[in-house]
Specification:
The structure holds two protein chains of two kinds.
Chain A: H1 2-47, E1 69-75, H2 80-93, E2 97-104, H3 106-114, E3 120-123, E4 140-155, E5 163-164, H4 166-173, H5 183-188, E6 200-204, H6 209-221, E7 241-243, H7 245-255, E8 259-264, H8 265-270, E9 274-275, E10 277-279, E11 285-286, H9 290-298, E12 301-302, E13 308-309, E14 322-330, H10 336-350, H11 367-376
Chain B: H1 2-49, H2 52-55, E1 59-60, E2 65-66, H3 69-100, H4 103-118, H5 121-147, H6 153-157, H7 166-190, H8 194-202, H9 207-236, H10 239-244, H11 262-269, H12 275-312
Antiparallel strand pairs in B: 1-2
Helix pairs in contact in B: 1-12, 3-4, 3-7, 3-9, 4-7, 5-7, 7-9, 8-9, 9-12, 11-12
Chain lengths: 382, 313
């Protein structure tokens, strides 16, 4: 009879330590949660002011009401703010449809769609040829949705206006120009009083479509000066600093006098950063604005599959570092109800949703591209 | 009645043996499968880069060049810095709570240390990047200015100091491994028989002499083991390091410069990586796995040797 007794005490003891542990974990988790919700909500306030005002008119005649189903999506974080505000107003016109967007990065979106974990993916980049075979559901379609300028933001005491040509920009980000009063920067800014502050280059620490677009731009606009090639991660000079995500880069720029980095417009605006004007293909210095982005899109060469590059396009008003983003879906759908809901959702993004774009600092598509994208909806079949 | 109970016990024993065997083998099998599948996934990168995967420090995904040496260096350096700070502090806390603290202080101190272990690592990372890094940069810079030009010290601390650096990563890691090293050391120190302590006191030893000559030699093996577990945790830590180490692939003796570590690189770059790049990142995981195993084997042999010596004494 001694055995059950000792078992009992042992059990009691474990229970005791377990409860103790539980309290500890609970306290920590609660603290973390509180921190996070605080961070998230403050972010949203900054970016999404007035998102509920746009797109309330249900005048398009598209029958959203009869649609139903759940549309899970994941992918690029760059257009996440726009998709979230579009999802919110779409839920008002199509109460039967639940649209989810998980973010996670373009790479995750493409992988999730390839393995059919999601029904739609957001991506800033096209699928690499070597990866096409991994898409289990067969042929896929690109739907361009919105575009946005990538700002070159800086923090330099006493300098509120800065102009940079592509070659100068390339040399700064390769640490070939190391102080702000370098003759090359002075040549771009004849009127500015530039201090001798050392330049601190800030780049993304995580692999990113924003890095990819920024380096692609430098490769295209400064083909001789830029030597680091283009990609989601490049071999940055060791003297540079890194930040996680657009907000991490923005934070690092704010923290250091003399810092310069690339940040998307919505995060740069939210972080109250100062932007440089970039010399475009036509030779004009253009500030990063939504109009500049739309002007860049208007002159972009659109391929048959509706992919395009708005980087370094012609046009007097075009902002040269403009990046587009796409929704990626399979052409052949398995479920008719879901396919109808999916078509409805994409149609909404391409029509009424476009009016919501400026609220979240995105540029709507030019009419020609918008029409092509809407026409492509008929290619989604079951 | 008695024989019945014995029979029941025997059946229970064999059942227990079965369960324990399955659990033990499952761990081995899982480890083996992880090693096999990650190596398989990493194979394209290994064959593409050859030995330069671990001997080159050039990590250039667009060019298809993958050399992990700078990340291996970063992982080892930041973990070493972490141990440098964490071990004395942990031992101090363990000795304090076991030997020196007034009884009513022991519980709260132990509780707070355990609480540190329950804080998610991303919280340490966020604190590190938002609070520690910007505020400690001037401190780094003043140390850097003071040591600049002095041989050895100048090479370690001199030059330009960055808030996100090997040192900041090491400091954050130190805070993260203090709980595990402390609580394991405390357990080990608590097992020192009171006869040992009383013998020391009986010889007229002061408290410090008692700790020095009877507590520490007795628990040396266990403390080394706890330090090695802490080291394992430091080397594998991902998010906190990814946020504060600075994400720059370089090998330098300057601890105030940004670097990068294996686990941090995987976390940062995996999401957007293409086929070969992804394979190279999994390769980093394999290298980390191998290094962790080497460290653990080394730790085990140190612990056995120390234990043998202690028992012999």
């Amino acid at each position: 009879m001694a055995m059950p007794h000792s078992v009992q005490t042992l059990k009691e003891r474990t229970n005791l330590t377990l409860t103790k542990r539980g309290t500890v974990v609970a306290v920590a988790v609660f603290t973390a949660l509180a921190l996070f919700t605080a961070a998230c909500s403050s972010n949203k306030d900054d970016v999404q002011t007035g998102s509920s005002t746009g797109g309330t008119s249900a005048s398009s005649g598209y029958d959203y009401e009869s649609l139903s189903g759940t549309l899970d999506g994941s992918g690029a974080t760059f257009p996440k703010a726009f998709y979230e505000s579009a999802i919110e107003s779409f839920s008002e016109v199509a109460p039967g449809v639940t649209v989810n967007y998980g973010g996670g990065g373009s790479g995750k979106g493409k992988t999730d769609l390839a393995t059919q974990v999601v029904i739609w993916a957001g991506t800033d980049s096209t699928v690499k040829d070597e990866d096409v075979a991994t898409f289990k559901g067969g042929a896929f379609l690109y739907f361009p949705t919105v575009a946005a300028p990538i700002t070159v933001s800086y923090n330099l005491k006493g300098v509120t206006e800065l102009q940079l040509s592509p070659d100068t920009l390339a040399k700064i980000f390769q640490a070939e120009i190391t102080t702000w009063n370098d003759p090359a920067i002075a040549a771009d800014n004849p009127d500015a009083a530039l201090p001798s502050t050392p330049i601190v280059v800030v780049h993304r620490s995580d692999g990113s479509g924003t890095t990819s677009n920024f380096t692609k731009y430098l490769k295209a606009a400064a083909p001789t000066a830029w030597k680091l090639d283009a990609g989601d991660t490049v071999n940055w000079p060791t003297t540079s600093q890194a930040g996680n995500g657009n907000t991490g880069v923005a934070q690092a720029i704010t923290a250091a006098d003399g810092a310069i980095g690339y940040v998307d417009l919505s995060d740069a605006t939210a972080s109250k950063l100062t932007f440089a004007s970039i010399k475009n293909k036509d030779g004009n210095f253009v500030a990063p604005t939504l109009d500049g982005a739309t002007a860049a899109l208007a002159n972009a060469e659109v391929k048959d599959n509706l992919t395009y590059s708005a980087l370094n396009t012609a046009g007097a008003e075009a902002y040269p570092i403009t990046a587009g983003t796409y929704i990626l879906v399979y052409a052949k759908q398995t479920d008719a109800t879901k396919a109808a809901a999916l078509k409805g959702w994409i149609n909404y993004v391409l029509t009424e949703g476009q009016a919501l774009a400026p609220d979240t600092y995105f540029a709507p598509l030019p009419t020609s591209l918008q029409e092509k994208a809407i026409a492509q909806l008929s290619k989604i079949t079951t | 009645m008695k024989s019945q109970m014995e029979g029941h016990g025997a059946r229970g024993d064999s059942f227990f043996r079965g369960v324990a065997l399955v659990a033990g083998l499952a761990v081995l099998a899982i480890l083996g499968l992880i090693a096999w599948s990650t190596t398989k996934e990493a194979w394209p990168a290994f064959t593409e880069s050859g030995i330069s995967f671990v001997t080159s420090d050039v990590w250039d995904p667009p060019a298809g060049e993958f050399g992990a040496l700078a990340f291996i260096y970063g992982t080892l350096l930041s973990s070493f810095i972490a141990l440098l700070f964490a071990v004395p502090v942990s031992l101090g806390i363990a000795l304090f709570t076991n030997e020196a603290a007034p009884r009513r202080l022991r519980k709260p101190v132990t509780y707070v240390i355990d609480l540190l272990a329950a804080v998610p690592s991303v919280v340490y990372g966020l604190w590190g990047v938002l609070v520690l890094a910007p505020n400690i940069q001037p401190v780094y810079q003043s140390i850097a200015d003071a040591t600049d030009g002095i041989p050895v010290l100048g090479a370690i601390f001199g030059g330009v100091a960055s808030g996100k650096s090997f040192m900041t990563a090491g400091l954050i890691l130190a805070i993260m491994i203090v709980p595990i090293v402390t609580s394991l050391s405390r357990e080990v120190i608590a097992t020192v028989p009171s006869s040992q302590r009383e013998a020391a006191y009986g010889m007229g030893a002061t408290r410090w002499e008692m700790i020095r000559y009877s507590v520490l030699p007795w628990s040396r093996g266990g403390i080394t083991g706890s330090v090695m577990l802490g080291l394992g945790r430091a080397m594998g830590e991902t998010i906190a390091v990814a946020l504060v180490i600075g994400s720059t692939a370089q090998i330098t003796s300057h601890v105030f410069l940004p670097g990068d570590a294996m686990a941090a690189v995987i976390a940062n770059q995996f999401g957007e990586a293409g086929a070969l790049h992804k394979s190279a990142l999994i390769g980093l995981g394999v290298v980390l796995f191998v290094i962790t195993i080497l460290v653990n084997v080394a730790a085990r042999s140190i612990v056995t040797r120390l234990d043998r010596r202690t028992q012999g004494a």
